[in-house]
Each structure stands twice: as structure tokens, then as C-alpha cells.
Design brief:
CATH topology: Deoxyribonuclease I, Chain A
Strand order of the largest sheet: 6-7-8-9-11-10
Number of domains: 1
Strand content: 25-35%
Structural class: alpha+beta
Helix content: 10-25%
Order of helices and strands: HEEHEEHHEEEEHEHEEEE
Number of helices: 6
Radius of gyration: 18 Å
Largest sheet: 6 strands, mixed
CATH architecture: 4-Layer Sandwich
Number of strands: 13
Length: 269
């Protein structure tokens, strides 16, 4: 979701985008929650809960990173991002929940004016498929990472089939993400049901995902990043088990984030 904004901090209508998916189960990454005036989550504004309220869905979320998101920048051009998007003075998100950012960042007007909050992974489910159990599968914090990676697992029963849906947001490979992939592989073998789905921003190409999770198969094929001119697929929906059949899989049009949404249609055999 890129916290509901573009690279200049301008908001997009993420609720309308999510509603347009017409999906029974929705997995979100980088869903932003604005902290209340006292700096806590209670009484705060959660994007995942807003979307769930519009759809009338159940929602569960887990915050995996705290920090600040910039406010809309004046005089920004039409482009989604700045030319030097990765330079500190151009960051849209300043995550400091794992370790403090350097003093030269904390003294920038851009950082001081930014909005405190946290970003979460969330799973939204239609009300007639009640959630039976929810588990958080933590992964180790990588030395170069600024958030705590997790997988959020939800157990459902769909047309009589016990099923697990897991959502995650993985680190980039140059952060040492192979360690997290090994942890995730071990956790899912014991903490997810035989028939399961794993969805999210993997920040990793398909062959590498297949290497780390050989028992899982892809349901969507097509470039999803960057949203304005996609050339790589780093967003995936993976399937495990024999009781579900893939009817279709697709990358959806640009919806406002820096990644394009991916969607799959499944049927119980």
C-alpha cells in the first residue's frame, strides 16, 4: 500500500482501490496506522480497518515497523516518485522502530514535520468465512533492516476445506533476506495447514522464491513493480496443497501504490 501515499506524500484512494478487487480474502502490506496525539495506537487511524469497514469484512493486522511518513510535499510534479527516491532527504517513509535514525535525519524539517505511526501487514476476510485462529510467525531482525519481519497466518474454512492464508512483507535480498526465508520456510511447515496460501510483497524474483519455497507453486505471473512501468514480479501469491485449483491469476492495473496489486481466483476441488 505504500502507506496510502505516493513518493511525494500525496494520498490516493486506497479504500476504493481495495474495494475494486472484489476479493473474498485480501492481504495488505505497508498499511499505515496514524498514532493518536499521545503517540499510541489506541484511538488511532488504521487504513486496514478503514478498508475492512467499507467492505464489511473481518480484519486482523500486525504492526511490524514504527516510524514516520511524510506529509504531502508542495510543488511536487505529476510523477509518482522523485528522481533520487532513495536519498535520505527524499525518503517518503522514515522507519526507526528497530534503531534510531542518524541525527542528521532527525533534524531535517522533512522528518520533524512527518506523521508518526506504524505500518502493518493485514488480512481482510469476508464475514461468512469467520477467522478460526490467528498466529504471528516472527523472523529475525536483519542487520540492515529497519523493521521486524513477520508472517501473519489466518485459519479459515472455505466450502468445507480447512485453509490457512499467510501474509508477509519480506526484506530485500541485499539486507540478508535469505535468513528470513529459511525461518519462514520452517515456520510455515508447522504453523500453516496442509492447504495454504502465502501472499505479499516478497521483494524477490520468482526463481528465488521458488528456490526458498520449493513446495509452493505460483498462482500469478507477470511484472508488478514498479507500478508506473513494471518490469519485475516481486509480488506473489503462492499455493500449497492439492485441494485448491488455480482458475486464473493476474496483475491488476496501477492502483496508487509503488507496486501493482496481484489477484488469483481459486476453486475447491
Amino acid at each position: 500500500m505504500h502507506c496510502g501515499m505516493d513518493g511525494w506524500g500525496r494520498p490516493y484512494d486506497y479504500v476504493a482501490a481495495i474495494e475494486s478487487f472484489e476479493a473474498d480474502v485480501i492481504v495488505l502490506e505497508e498499511a499505515w496506522t496514524t498514532f493518536d496525539e499521545e503517540g499510541g495506537e489506541e484511538g488511532s487511524d488504521s487504513q486496514a480497518e478503514r478498508a475492512a469497514a467499507r467492505l464489511g469484512y473481518e480484519v486482523v493486522s500486525y504492526a511490524y515497523g514504527e516510524g514516520r511518513r511524510i506529509r504531502p510535499q508542495e510543488g511536487a510534479p505529476e510523477s509518482w516518485r522523485t528522481r533520487r527516491f532513495w536519498a535520505r532527504h527524499n525518503w517518503a517513509l522514515y522507519m526507526d522502530g528497530v534503531r534510531a535514525l542518524p541525527k542528521q535525519v532527525q533534524t531535517m524539517d522533512r522528518w520533524l514535520q512527518a506523521e508518526p505511526g506504524c505500518m502493518s501487514v493485514a488480512v481482510l476476510v469476508r464475514p461468512d468465512w469467520p477467522m478460526q485462529d490467528v498466529r504471528i510467525l516472527p523472523m529475525g531482525v536483519l542487520r540492515a533492516d529497519m523493521v521486524r519481519r513477520v508472517a501473519l497466518v489466518v485459519d479459515l474454512t472455505v466450502e468445507g476445506l480447512p485453509l490457512s492464508v499467510a501474509g508477509t512483507h519480506m526484506a530485500h535480498m541485499q539486507f540478508g533476506a535469505h535468513r528470513n526465508w529459511a525461518e519462514l520456510r520452517r515456520s510455515l511447515r508447522s504453523e500453516a495447514r496442509e492447504n495454504a496460501l502465502l501472499a505479499g510483497d516478497m521483494n524477490t524474483w520468482s526463481p528465488v522464491v521458488k528456490f526458498f519455497l520449493p513446495e509452493w507453486r505460483r498462482t500469478v505471473r507477470g511484472p508488478s513493480w514498479p507500478a508506473w512501468r513494471p518490469h519485475s514480479q516481486i509480488d506473489h501469491i503462492l499455493l500449497r496443497g492439492s485441494a485448491l485449483r488455480v482458475v486464473s491469476g493476474e496483475v491488476l492495473p496501477h492502483a496508487g501504490s509503488d507496486h501493482r496489486p496481484v489477484r488469483t481466483r481459486l476453486e475447491v476441488r
